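Risk mitigation, structural track. In case the binding assays with iron/sulfur cluster fail to produce interpretable data, a predicted complex structure has been prepared as a fallback.
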Amino acid sequence: MTDQSRYAPLFESVRIGPVTAPNRFYQVPHCTGMGHALPQTLVAMRAMKAEGGWGVVCTEYCSIHPSSDDHPYPFASLWDDGDLGNLAAMADAVHAHGALAGIELWHGGSYVANLATRLPSLGVRSAPGRTDPIQSQRMDRRDIRALRQWHRDAALRARKAGFDIIYVYPSHGYLLSEFLSRSCNDRTDEYGGSLENRMRLLRELLEDTRGAVGDRCAVAVRFAANGHGAEHLCEQEAQEVVAALAHLPDLWDVVISDYDEEMGSSRFVREGALEDRVAYVRKLTGKPVVCVGRFTSPDSMLGQLKRGVLDLIGAARPSIADPFLPTKVREGRLEDIRECIGCNICYAHNFRGSALRCTQNPTIGEEWRSGWHPERVPAGSGGTVLIVGAGPAGLEAAHVLGKRGYQVVLADAAKEAGGRVTREGRLPGLAEWLRVRDYRLGQIGRMANVSLYLDSRMAASDVRAFGANHVLIATGANWRRDGVGRWHSQPIAALDPAAVYTPDDILDGRLPEGDVVLFDDDHYYLGPVIAIQLARAGAYVRYVTTEGRAGAWSLYTQEQERTQRTLIDHGVEIEVNVALSAFDESLATLACVFSGRSRVVPASAVVLVTARTPDEALYRALVGEAEEPGALTAGPPGLESVQRIGDCLQPALIASAVYSGHRAARELGQTGQSPRRERVLISKEAPFSC
Ligand code: ADP
Ligand code: SF4
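Fallback model:
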């Protein structure tokens, strides 16, 4: 199938002011955890998307001035000409593949704390920021004039750096949305009061940007089409803003006010979920409109065009999961698309202040660091590889080794492939995660050199008898039954084993009934998801965690609040800052993590979601207790290496297992090279001096 076929409309060019996007695949601005800190990593990652066919590739939020400093999160910056080189490198790299480069100029307003620059943050009024006990400085007219100048200067620099689309960014709670807001904007000057006054600064920045760079660059606005929450800018007012400014920007990039939903995980938000709230924008403006929706299906994309909702298909996550998605659609290789699973691990790592990674695409962020290409792998040196365990690590390894030309045999004791993904994918809300398995099964299913054997438990003698050149052990990990985890470094002494359950029991279909205490010392999705499963099955569930919130780590995946709400909606009792300290089959003892004070609650069963033990028995049987990786005790002739991958090596995220399998497979037979590092070096030309 080619772009002449069914999906040809997706490959039509789109005029955006003075520039033309070569197709409708538009990578909207998205944060990366790279920004100004990892410029080479960033350039290579963005370039890969352009190579993969995205018609427009944008930066992340790009600060226009040191008073907008989101440290420790690595944003992009255009504070002075010293920033030009890094951003020009990105624009050039994107252009080299025929795509347009967009840049999202940004001022964080009261939201940021300026931890690095130590300047006062600036706000429409003096207000507390997101996290730190710091309030912003109320902007006076002089500050507003200065802001307009900074924005204009940044726009000129962006044009000089070669960008084609330059954003004005009045959403996501940053400075310009403060001005738009009814509740935050308490000014009595010409920038406050009526909607006309509150949108004045936005209008001015759009006009300034057009005046500065509009001859050559398109001006885009990123706007929350349903307001910024009823108390900020109501829906009616949002529509009035769109109507009033309809023709001022060259492009409307529409978002919604609820970031948890706009950026919603697949547990809570389906593909294309924003349509109802953004569809009106295109009716009010003759300018092209782009919006995200975690679109991975070209039919959904086509639907957006046909229904007149969008002109350009916005994507952040789908472009991370598969930088080559547009090329695959164009070539009719839909089965090769690595569909985003909506887990938000990408976003979580930016939120952790580290570079982006992805459950589905282990190569993202490794383009420069490790020289990895998402579609190409180096040819192998030949030979056979036996992989034991067809979970995400084993499947990914089989896929990559198959591509490298090895003869691969993948064996799993279970009747179904997929390991933990298959098992967890049956839990409430996690069905989309099965894409991790299905993509890889689809790929290896078409490789004549890869065979999958299910229902095939392998003992060390079987592995030796098999006679492979290389063995990868991907046998996973098992949940602990003794309470050891973050809180308890030793097994809980008083723990009646008869009614103790672990996630493995639940995944095997053994569900406790009655009064169930679920002890979550893991803090991510699994504890809450199992609590919901048990509540749905009729148990009275008391969810107990050593953290201050349910599923506390899912704050980073933008799921925490919805997680807690869902538990409440299911009638789950939530107890925070407590640890399970004993259980005797009718009573559970809970201890406050601060005071140690304890109390007992009725419990007919406990579920322990604490920590996992790597299942390395097979690995140890093959290599003994030697700690040298791949050291063999009694290897048969021809066996060159044995190594562990995935949860068997290190119980961690599914993304980590996929990455581990990928790295091991890509590097098999290669002489090991450490990933490259980006670091600031003191140069001989400008030696250090104080
Ligand atoms: P990972 O996340 O590291 O891929 P999983 O726990 O998802 O790990 O998958 C491990 C897989 O290994 C499971 O499907 C399990 O059935 C399989 N497995 C464990 N031990 C053996 C064994 N001895 N022989 C074959 N398969 C095994
Ligand atoms: Fe999608 Fe998850 Fe990858 Fe993010 S990490 S792009 S949500 S699959």
